Amino acid sequence: MDFELLTIPGCPNTAAARVVFDRALALEGTGCTARVQEVTSESEAAELDFHGSPTFRAAGHDLFPSDAAPAVSCRLYPSGGKMSGLPPLDDLRAALRQYSL
């Protein structure tokens, strides 16, 4: 299965997102790491159905589907009653299970 981390140039969460995604993939026993792709234009965001950085995908599916319009922007995730630039590790693992099984 293909795992992708989509980001924008200069995203302050890219490094941490890569670490948490690869950790979740390891804990789920996928034997894979995520490929990182930068999204640099609104047309590319629309083509990829990209809803902000960072976006976590498995087999081309956003692990955290969004109703927001595609955009080259930052993305926030609910985390412990507040919003964060990264999803909690447990939420990411649960989302991976939906697409990995």
Can you walk through the features of this model?
- By secondary structure, the protein is an alpha+beta fold.
- The chain has one domain.
- The chain has a four-stranded mixed β-sheet with strand order 2-1-3-4, covered by helices on one side. Strands 5-6 form a two-stranded antiparallel ribbon.
- The longest helix is centred in the N-terminal third of the chain and has 14 residues.
- The protein is globular and about 35 Å long.
Summary keywords:
3 helices; four-stranded mixed sheet; 101 residues; globular; two-stranded antiparallel sheet
Summarize the structure.
The chain is of the alpha+beta class. Helix content is 33%, strand content 21%.
